[in-house]
């Protein structure tokens, strides 16, 4: 879970310091300044949540406090806040985070504007319940979205026994679900196979072009003066009738043999 929550530390500041040196006006002049101005700033969306309806309203400061903490952190880290979303009177445990109206609206916007970072005041604003946190994070991670807790960006990098247990359980559940899907598909294939239905491999020409097989059978049953037609004779007859391979060439004798021997 090393990438679970983004940590803005010395590496970030060292990179910014290096950029200042590389694009310094003294070293590179106006062109360096232009390049520096084009350097894309990291963008993020602020997310706030208040559990109790008692803390919701114009005279309450919960959402204002959260946004202020997020903006302060973002400014210090050189991150641009391009939007904010708020779930009022929403409990932080139980239901999946994507069922929250504000969070769902935020995900919809993120999917359309390319922002890949969410900042919350604290981890429990994301979710109080650790299981909900882990499941929610996995969902975001699958979409390429990172989460930062403004009060302590490294807090969730620490592997606690409880967090490790939940991750192991989630991993086991995921593997179990995959195994069940594989077993169900295998069972379905076996049932179809018993009925004589082809369930695997590339479709035969009899399935994709039954008219070719029928024409080959008729040609093979023909009895000209020279005797029974050879496989090459059948192939030539098919070509004369306009039946060719997908590449526009006559069928090989082995292909004709398969049509006749197995009924394609």
User: What would you call the structural class?
Assistant: alpha/beta
**CATH superfamily (homologous) name of the largest domain:** Resolvase, N-terminal catalytic domain
For this structure, what is the CATH class of the largest domain?
Alpha Beta
How big is the Rg? 33 Å
Uncertain parts? 1-12, 21-38
Classify the beta-strand content into a percent band: 5-15%
User: What is the fold-level CATH name, i.e. the topology of the largest domain?
Assistant: Rossmann fold
Sketch the topology as an H/E string, one letter per element: HHEHEHEHHEHHHHH
Indicate the overall shape: elongated
- Strands of the largest sheet, in order across it? 2-1-3-4
> Helical content, roughly?
40-55%
Number of helices: 11
Largest sheet data = 4 strands, parallel
- The total domain count is 3
Question: Between the first and last Cα atoms, what is the distance in angstroms?
Answer: 53 Å
| Mean pLDDT score | 77
Domain Resolvase/invertase-type recombinase catalytic: 43-196
Organism: Lichenibacterium ramalinae
Pfam families: Resolvase
GO molecular function: DNA binding; DNA strand exchange activity
Brief write-up:
This protein is α/β, with parallel strands linked by helices and 264 residues long. It is 54% helix and 9% strand.
């Amino acid at each position: 879970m090393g990438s679970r929550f983004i940590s803005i530390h010395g590496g970030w500041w060292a990179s910014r310091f290096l950029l200042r040196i590389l694009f310094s006006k003294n070293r590179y002049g106006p062109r360096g300044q232009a390049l520096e101005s084009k350097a894309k700033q990291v963008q993020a969306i602020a997310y706030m949540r208040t559990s109790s309806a008692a803390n919701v309203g114009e005279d309450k400061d919960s959402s204002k406090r959260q946004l202020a903490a997020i903006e302060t952190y973002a400014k210090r880290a050189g991150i641009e806040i391009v939007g904010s979303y708020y779930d009022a009177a929403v409990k932080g445990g139980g239901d999946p985070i994507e069922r929250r109206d504000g969070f769902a609206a935020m995900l919809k916007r993120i999917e359309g504007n390319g922002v890949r970072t969410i900042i919350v005041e604290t981890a429990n604003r994301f979710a109080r319940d650790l299981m909900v946190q882990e499941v929610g994070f996995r969902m975001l991670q699958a979409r390429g979205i990172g989460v930062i807790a403004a009060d302590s960006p490294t807090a969730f990098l620490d592997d606690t026994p409880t967090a490790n247990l939940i991750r192991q359980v989630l991993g086991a559940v995921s593997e179990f679900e995959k195994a069940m899907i594989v077993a169900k598909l295998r069972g379905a294939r076996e049932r179809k196979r018993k009925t004589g239905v082809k369930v695997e491999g590339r479709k035969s020409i009899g399935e994709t072009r039954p008219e070719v097989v029928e024409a080959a059978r008729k040609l093979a049953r023909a009895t000209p003066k020279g005797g029974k037609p050879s496989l090459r004779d059948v192939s030539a007859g098919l070509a004369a009738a306009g039946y060719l391979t997908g590449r526009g060439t006559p069928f090989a004798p082995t292909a004709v043999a398969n049509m006749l021997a197995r009924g394609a």
